[in-house]
Amino acid sequence: MVQNDILLKHLSSIYDPELAVNIVDLGMVKDIQHIEKDVQIKLALTIADCPMRNQIETEIERKLLLLENVDSVEITTTAMNQEDRTAVMEKARKKARENAQPTNINPRTRVVAIGSGKGGVGKSTLSANIALGLSKAGFKTGLLDADIWGFSIPRLLGITGRIEANENKKMVPYKFNELEVVSTGLITSDEDTALMWRGLMLSKALEQFLTDVEWGELDYLIIDLPPGTGDIQMALSRLLPQAELIVVTTPQLMAQKVATRVADMAKRSFIPLLGVIENMSYFESNSGEKYNLFGEGGGEALSEKFGLPLLSKIPISEDTNNKADGGIPLINQENDSSTKLAIEKLVKDIAIKLPPVVDETCTGRLAKVFEELSK
Q: Is 328 a member of any domain?
């Protein structure tokens, strides 16, 4: 049985997109009952015909069902009384006065971090191609290379330029087609420069990339995390409470065991786990023959252990690596290889599973609420 404080912690990662305050602090969560593996929640929204009702309810259900020992979520939704609405109004005014948004990432932005327990599993390749795929699908997308030491995003995208600053002394992301890209590799003199930074500096670098960059209005921000469970991962949960994690593993048992640590770190840091990707799942030749070069079963084992969906099994295709090494991302290659097709399907599934936050929100009608309260 999951304790109520843990449930509230996960619910506090669901933000009202306009107020930039989570639904727990807004007083929307009125009661939680947890009987065996069933969770019952009483939810109060600002107005009865809140246009965000379905999305908020879906988000609550999705995030709580990611937890172990939660099999069902029942939500009873009502409208706030006048006292509760007054409290919401006060929080809105206080937020406006303080302007306390800690980063330049809008609370509406879907933040998806791509993590792994070890290097060499293709995490950065997947991050670059997922971000590029979302951008090509018409979503306003940013890609943050948070692997400060081992940055590889510029090489994967074939970028040779550098990040510039605007008149406000804010960094402007490098524009790769319509994709907004930020990486330490776009700041150093060249990609072979070694960064001799300690852990605290790495966390500070991540913070700067989130606060001192003009990201603009993003639908998605894809973050390529460094391997392991260090300072960057812990800072992520503090700086971006709406972040969710996809864990990348390969088929062999050893990789799955190491990836388990990342999933456990996310669980302990209250970062929702979106799912598992098994990369390099098998090799497929141009004639369609398949070979399990690295064994099999690692993705399934990890997804079963944490009760997560296996989002995709990405194969290695013949005649794709040379082009990728030359800076042509898999998703941009002309040949419709099995790898490219699997990534395109993965991108579509992510957009369905985690759709952009709609423009019309419950508190989009706050002006009406304020008028009503002033009567």
A: yes
